[in-house]
Amino acid sequence: MTPTLVTAAIATPHIDWAGLSPFIALAAGSIVVLLVGIVLGAGGARHATPLLSLVTLGATIGLAIWQLGERAELLAGAMALDELTVTLILVLAAAGVAAVLLSWRSRAAGSAGHAEYYALLLLSVLGMAVLVAADNLVTLFVGFELLSIPLYALCAAEIRREGSLESGLKYLIVGSVGSATLLYGLALVYGATGSTDFGGIAEALRDASVRDDVLLLTGMGLTLVGLAFKASVAPFHQWTPDVYEGAPTPVTAFMAVATKAAAFGVLLRLFDVGLVNAQTTWAPAIAALATITILVGNVGALGQTSLKRMLAWSGVAQAGYLLCGVLVGTQLGAKAMVFYLAVYLAMNIAAFAVVIARERAAELGDDIAAVAGLGRTQPLLAWPLTVAMLALAGIPATAGFIGKLYLIDALVDGGWAWVAIVLVVGSMISLGYYLRVVAAVWWGEPADRAEALAATPAGAPPVMAGGSQEADALGRPQPEVVLVAWLATAIVVVFGIVPGPLFELAGRAGSALTGIF
Amino acid sequence: MTLSILIWLPLVAGLLAAIWGGKAAPKLYALGALATLAIAISFVARFDAGHDGLQFVTDEAWISQLGVSYHLGMDGLNVVLVLLTAFVFAAAALMANLRRWERPGLFYFHLALGETAVLGAFLAQDLILFVAFFDLMLIPFYFLTGIWGSGDRAARVRATQKLVIYTMVGSLLMLAAAIATGVLAASQHDTELTFSFAALRELPLAEGTQQWIFLCFAAAFLVKMPAFPLHGWLRDGYGAMPLPALAAFSGVLSKVAAYGFLRIALPIFPDASVHFQELLLLIAVASILYGSVMAFSQGSARLVVAYSSVAQMGFITLGIFALNEDGAQGALLQMVNHGVVTAPLFFIVGLLAARAGSEQLRDMGGLAFRAPVLATLFLIVALATLAMPGSGNFVGELLILLGAFKAKVVFAFVASIGVALASVYMLRAFIKAMHGRVNPGADSREVTFGDLVALVPAVAVILALALYPQFGLERTETSAKQAVAAVQQQTGQLAAAAHQPSQEQTP
């Protein structure tokens, strides 16, 4: 066979290298990080690999900005490059940067092996990027798995701590159930519509007989459940507090923001592009899920004393708010959701950075007592935590307020005023636990050292090893952690006062969904 | 010079105070507050009372995608209230300067943030901007109460929790309602999304929609006042707040709520305002009676004043929901009077507590013995509070009752009992504190020069308002008419009947 015949026989798709460049950068970066780790050994990789990861993420951000405004099909329609993809990649990469900086001197990266840890992190970001770009059911599933599997490993990164292993295992089991459900649902959707392509599905759903097909309804339901597991939407959220609590905190921070951004990105594209013609069918279901999620998340957070668990429950509640953006099925809803995702990222990163700093410095770990009296002893950490909590509660002059404003606006505009009221009621409940943290920070009594030691439950690590090595005797936080906290805080405050630029970006992302109004 | 300077100057001073910290902080914020007062006076001086409509307008796009604008303006409704705010905060700053606060930078920063938020809420001409400032007001007072409040930690935690939960429940409902107002007005009239007050007045909502939206706004405002069934946070909240903050809170923050009724509820939801008139009047009368009775039975001087303001806010609500011009003007005048009176009252409570060792009336007694100046000042303020004929409060209450009699006689009749009750509780507090047997634990001593600097201007303003109530009345007249114009169209006959006698000039 001559070479010409071979090329003729296999119709190679046109490959848009420029469009693919952010994905390539992430994939290449993770391999390079892994290889550099092998070459340099444990000692050398300690600082080289996070640095390389930052370079990779920086390159991804640069390439994504370069591609902003392009609209193209990648790999024969497997992925869509548009403003929504690019904006969410920016959000994901920002979460990655924060995670790398927060992991830099963590115990997790040390015990898992630096190269492996950061390579897994980058691979997970790649999976998320693929997921938010997915324009095809198969790509969707590939991205979904590529994001999940590294995370299972990352949760268990502190291999000498029981809690971390437990968290990884739990996440693996629950995640697998979610994946299986999702796969089953995707298969049924394909069976009903005869297409794996989102465009083809939307086309098939113009037919009313297909829309009312039980096969499709079951498929949509199962798909929604599968994605709901990942986005920690109630009642599929039960794993969230346990996994968040057990996982190494930098990984928790990453999971809390990036996984959620990815899951909601794909929910948006699947439901507002692929299944948009069946909106009347799925919107009531999503409205019910959003209502349950908002109430369950907020009520669940009320009784928590562990900050990580509280943030996990608050993440569940926030997932409910985000779901409102998908629910309305309008461009306004998509814009509001993307806006809120970006804000959500900043608010949570600020909070988690402070939790990490305290965890490394104090014996109390992530208990709320660890931040008591912080306003007096460490204003540098107290302010980011305060701003993050107020923003999560939706207080004006923070971006959280604008984000909620946008979501409520989208809801009322789409004719879902009662969900807006649920959202507001949820916010009221949320004050109960967000302000408890603020109160502890500013007028709580710093726990006595001896008392703190006694309060530490048996079986917990005696002193956070990362802390005892890295943090100095005064418990001064590491500069990169403080930097992350303050950057995130600055974003929250600046976009709370001048929201214009972020609106612009979210607006472009929302208008990429051309099938809806 | 734009209104933005007026709004943001206190915050700048507060930020400087926070950065400098230490000894400079009190002086920095006091200077900032006095400068703000000076600017406010200059605006009032340049305010043209004959001109109807907004003056000194600033209108910039803030969130253009949502039709939200940074729209500020001054008219008859807010002109005196802005002056009141600047004055009360300046007085509070002087009051706070007299003692040392732990972490002074942070303390004055929060006080300054509060001033900025209140001024912003008064001057905002955009519904979302108003809601943002209204919600923001709460935050600094939350911190002030939590960090520098009186009482033990548990009391402060309870106070802050109640304060925030009550007020935020109202505020968040108001947020949803505000967005719904804009979005539904735009969709019902098929226009561009806008939240400007002036535009929303032209786009009335359907009556059913107005009703639930009105109730959400009313909840926010009534909690903030506070009014009778929604006052649950008052005892703990007022009990724990540090006195300078409390003077500002009771003096002006409660007025923002009453102002909200006049600015938003009446003109934008006229159908609903008429529909719920009797409910609101009932709440007003209940607040007057409940506040008076509670003020009479309190053992703590601070709580006497606190509950008396529930009664006073009841009068103001009564005036507003008389839904006529007399009532509205009386309410506006009374807002100013009450603000000017409460600030020195709380200051005096602080002075009394410093002499008696506690804020309990039973620990006081005979304090007038060696402090005639203090006793005189207290007496003037007390007489003004109980609306002694000749005081500004008398004019305010008279106008309110006049308006109420024209609207709903029964409510006005019951409410006028409250006037008598006011003298009972105020004189009881005065006598118990100042006269009678000298309490052995109490130390009667005269006020210092520093105290006088903070106290005398307030008393001077009370006397000035008593002599010249026209100062407020002539500036508010046009706007008060406008504020009730929409509801009077709805009430129709009631307005026509009510209008005739109001041609006769009232004091």
Task: Describe it.
The complex is a heterodimer of chains A (517) and B (507). With 517 residues, chain A is mostly helical. Chain A contains 23 helices and 2 strands. The N and C termini of chain A lie far apart (53 Å). With 507 residues, chain B is mainly alpha-helical. Chain B has 2 domains: 1-262, no CATH class; 276-498, no CATH class. Chain B contains 20 helices and 2 strands. Chain B has helices at residues 3-20, 24-46, 76-97, 104-123, 127-148, 153-189, 197-202, 207-224, 234-240, 243-268, 270-275, 277-297, 301-320, 325-356, 372-385, 392-407, 409-434, 449-467, 470-491, 493-499, and strands at residues 55-63, 68-74. Chains A and B meet through α18, α19 and α23 of A and α5 and α6 of B.
Number-wise, the strands of chain A total 2
pLDDT < 50 runs, ≥5 residues of chain B: 493-507
Backbone CA Rg of chain B: 22 Å
Mean of all residue-level pLDDT scores of chain B: 86
Q: What's this model, at a glance?
A:
In chain A, 77% of the residues lie in helices and 1% in strands. Chain A is built from 23 helices and two strands. Chain B is mostly helical.
Which characteristics define this entry?
heterodimer, A: 517 residues, mainly alpha, two-stranded antiparallel ribbon, B: 507 residues, 2 domains, 2 strands
Indicate the topology.
The complex is a heterodimer of chains A (517) and B (507).
Chain A: H1 3-9, H2 17-67, E1 72-74, E2 79-81, H3 83-103, H4 107-112, H5 114-133, H6 137-155, H7 162-193, H8 198-204, H9 208-211, H10 214-230, H11 239-246, H12 249-274, H13 279-302, H14 307-327, H15 331-361, H16 374-377, H17 379-393, H18 399-413, H19 417-443, H20 449-455, H21 465-470, H22 479-497, H23 500-511
Antiparallel strand pairs in A: 1-2
Helix pairs in contact in A: 2-3, 2-5, 3-5, 3-12, 3-15, 3-23, 5-6, 5-12, 6-7, 6-12, 7-10, 7-11, 10-12, 11-12, 11-14, 12-14, 12-15, 13-14, 13-19, 14-15, 14-18, 14-19, 15-17, 15-18, 15-22, 15-23, 17-19, 17-22, 18-19, 18-22
Chain B: H1 3-20, H2 24-46, E1 55-63, E2 68-74, H3 76-97, H4 104-123, H5 127-148, H6 153-189, H7 197-202, H8 207-224, H9 234-240, H10 243-268, H11 270-275, H12 277-297, H13 301-320, H14 325-356, H15 372-385, H16 392-407, H17 409-434, H18 449-467, H19 470-491, H20 493-499
Antiparallel strand pairs in B: 1-2
Helix pairs in contact in B: 1-2, 1-4, 2-3, 2-4, 3-4, 3-10, 3-14, 3-18, 3-19, 4-5, 4-10, 5-6, 5-10, 6-8, 6-9, 8-10, 9-13, 10-13, 10-14, 10-19, 12-13, 12-17, 13-14, 13-16, 13-17, 14-15, 14-16, 14-18, 14-19, 15-17, 15-18, 16-17, 16-18
